[in-house]
Amino acid sequence: MNHLTRRHALFSGTALFSSTSLGAFAATGARAEPANLAAAPILPAIRLTAAVNRPNEDLSGAWAYSKDLYKTGWSTLMDWKPSRGNQRFTDVDVAAEEARDRYALFEYDMQKAPRMALPGAWNAALPQLRYYDGLIWFQRTFIASPKPGYRALLRFEAVNYVTQVFVNGKPAGAHEGGFTPFTFDITDLIRDGVNQVTLGVDSSHTDQSVPPRITDWDIYGGVTRPVRLFVVPDTFIDDLYIRYTPEGRIIAEARLLGPAAANSELTLSIPALKLSARARTDEKGEARFDIKAPRGLKLWTPETPTLYDVTLTAGSDTLSDRVGFRTVAVKGHEIRLNGKPIFLRGICLHEEEFGSNPARIMTEQASRALLTEVKHGLNGNFVRLSHYPHSEVTTRLADEMGLLVWSEIPVYWAVAFADERALTTARRMMAENILRDRNRASLIIWSVGNETPKTEARNRFMGTLADDAKRLDPSRLTSAALLVNKTKVDGVLHARIDDPLVDKLDIMSANTYTAWYGGDKLEDVPPIRWSAPVDKPLIFSEFGADALAGFHARDRRKFSEEFQADFYRATLANAATVPFLAGLSPWILKDFQTPRREHPVYQNGWNRKGLLSETGARKQAFAVLADWYRQKAG
Ligand code: GCU
Fold first, then answer.
1. How far apart are CA 290 and CA 597, in angstroms?
2. Atom of ligand 1 nearest to the CA of 517
3. What stretch of H or E contains 437?
4. Is 451 exposed, middle or buried (CB count within 10 Å of its CB: 0-12, 13-18, 19+)?
């Protein structure tokens, strides 16, 4: 097996609770290695929608960690299998073993290991881990008191990139993907009193990963979002998908999991609307509500982001959420919110908090600091959360503050489009993202990727993702950020969007960097002629220029604030000439870390296309965009 196949043959199956049998550890030969993660189904076995609103034990805090760059505790070399002395997940007190047996050999000791505060990317935790890209083991204990009739669920909001989870030395499951939640049922693994949870987290990517090895953002390895422990009744509400329809109805689809899931009564209530309705689950544990919306319903808009408390009860379990009701659709080249045309005044964001050493810890305060600059600083109504699913903290805040959201999975640049394993990974990521956020009124667009080459394999790969999105959530729109070639005719640039993928998308989106990349000049930008063979809305999903905050140049050269401001003026002048343009999300709100940008004066590991510096200093171009949006808003 080549490295890739061997690597992907390393991972366990899905949750203990999954419909497929858990092939957590295939006894391939003498070595105990996890089975192939590819066996995991596209849809997660456990969704635990709106988990954040459930009582839980947050396992954030100090975790022991042990570096394992050569994966001695995970894989084999020649015929050497991982030994107990390397397997950090073993349920053992190393010091006691060493005291008991002079021949005991361990090359780790988690009890004596250093601690790291989780969540947070390890690259920001210690200078010596700044560019660490590989396997690190984490471990902590927690107290449990298992009760008959209840399940213990362990939920990870995001871990980058491949994770293996062990409880008391036994496999609980594995997951691939750095930005979407996963939940394992650990009921059968926990004991009364002290329990041990161990994570093997490998940040390294392969050419078949999603994203592949090369991106324009930083490593951010590790447990980047919270880990929480939930105790739920044996039969619990696993999913609720609720939405408002153009016909003025509220549709809710629910799913129970557990022995009493079938033929159970559910009650859906929205107190502020004096709405209460009952339904009964079918033999699969699923039920549907289809209710005429009460007259007093206030529709969600960015200006009036009305949210309603919704609860769903089933037996002794309750799922609660805060939901906005609205519709979104395309009509010709218009995007329509609640039936009215809307122009998306947006900006792109990476998931990276303000500060000179970001750890991707997206607390509500950190997210609010960023979104406030969009809503109130730029007078925006839209954010493109690029290039991967951002934290649920941010999508919930967008609901509350009134910002429309474009959500994207990292099908980015040179993906292995002909590789079935990569497609399965991307499909699973799309499903996990949609199932987590399809109750967020702010979320209007599912993006299937960014800047990918127009090949047959790519069209099939991304077309499959677009179909999945429509199947999992018919109420929202699809798009992708496309590369658009420009040709100069009689001195004027023509940008024609002729991409077969557009047939599968509701919205065409183009990244356009004329006069930053390539040899064209700023004066070439305002007259660019945009055209497309289909009548669909267009979004300029990216445009931008680097500027080092505080660098001013009389000659207005690249990397000066003056050039960036001139670039925005030129591109906005061009935007005003495009009749089917329905929105903008320039690249990008804030400078962000990336190993690809190493100019020693201007960049030093930062992409400087932000309108804000990494510490939040506004550059001249910020006001150029804010003024344009203020006029656009009328
Ligand atoms: C690309 C890409 C971004 C990248 C940006 C840039 O369009 O989508 O991820 O950071 O351009 O070159 O700065």
1. 52
2. 12
3. helix 420-437
4. middle
